[in-house]
Amino acid sequence: MLNIGAHLSSSKGFLHMGKEAVSIGGNTFQFFTRNPRGGKAKDIDPADAKALNDFMAENGFAKILAHAPYTLNPCAKDEKILEFALMAMEDDLKRMEYVPGNYYNFHPGSHVGQGAEKGIEKIAELLNKILKEEQTTTVLLETMSGKGSEVGRSFEELRAIIDRTELSDKLGVCLDTCHVYSAGYDIVSNLDGVLEEFDRVIGLQRLKAIHLNDSMMPFASNKDRHEKIGKGTIGLEAISRFICHDALKDIPMFLETPNELSGYKEEISLLRGIRGEN
Ligand code: FE
Ligand code: FE
Ligand code: ZN
């Protein structure tokens, strides 16, 4: 079965997200760990977290994906910004233990002129401070489109972060279809080639989650604008091949398309239909 969900609002708590996921035909979901614009995260209600854990077990959920605020910069030049990223991510990982055994995704950040090599060094340094042997969460590096000075625009850059991280068994990768296409990985005409390259550089066993998005921007444009499924430059045919590919078909996929809940529901139904599940 296709493991699929969408990005949901966390404002009404954990169990609400689980039920909302089911209401749109999903068996997983993504959410922000805290307001991307704000600082302090809301306290977790342990009873609500337990209710979600039970609900997910009863409903055969795939792993869920928490997304760190995209405003964090784990390789900032400014010490204060760097310190804030460290504190927020460390706190997020503690909170993730209320929903154990799931995924936590973050953007590697922007090196803001320090150079990718320095950025990679700083990201690994941060990971070496916050990853703990006893944590049950796998932390995912997201593939980025390469806008501005973003780190993570190539599989090699993600590999370099993993290589410098001591507890690298706690790390995986979340592949964003819109981002990799914008970064110059041609998943439309050469999906097999891109996956072979991913396997050679990073290792497909590290690929834990997919952000399934179409793109408003042309191939290799280094621009990051998500489009509804089938309405963009990637297109429905390529997305159909993607979700049916042997190497990808069991990996949880998360829609981050510009939609309300009803739009997500339609996309999930469309994708399940392509997999012959409706
Ligand atoms: Fe993201
Ligand atoms: Fe994404
Ligand atoms: Zn994006």
Structure overview:
The chain has 278 residues and is α/β, with parallel strands linked by helices. β4, α4 and β5 form a beta-alpha-beta unit. The chain is built from nine helices and ten strands. α3 crosses α4 and α4 crosses α5. The strands form two sheets. It has an eight-stranded parallel sheet. Bound molecules: fe (iii) ion (2 copies) and zinc ion (ZN).
Which key terms come to mind for this protein?
alpha/beta, 9 helices, 10 strands, 13% strand, eight-stranded parallel sheet, binds zinc ion, two-stranded antiparallel sheet, 278 residues, binds fe (iii) ion, globular
Q: What's the short version?
A:
The protein is an alpha/beta fold.
Hetero compounds: fe (iii) ion, zinc ion
Major β-sheet strand ordering: 1-10-7-6-5-4-3-2
Mean model confidence by pLDDT: 97
Distance between the termini: 11 Å
The biggest beta sheet reads: 8 strands, parallel
**Structural class, judged by helices and strands?**
alpha/beta
- Net shape: globular
Which percent bin holds the helix content? 25-40%
Supply the number of helical segments: 9
pLDDT < 50 stretches: none
Report Rg: 18 Å
Give me the strand/helix succession: EHEHEHEHEHEHHEEEHEH
Portion in strands? 5-15%
Total count of strands? 10
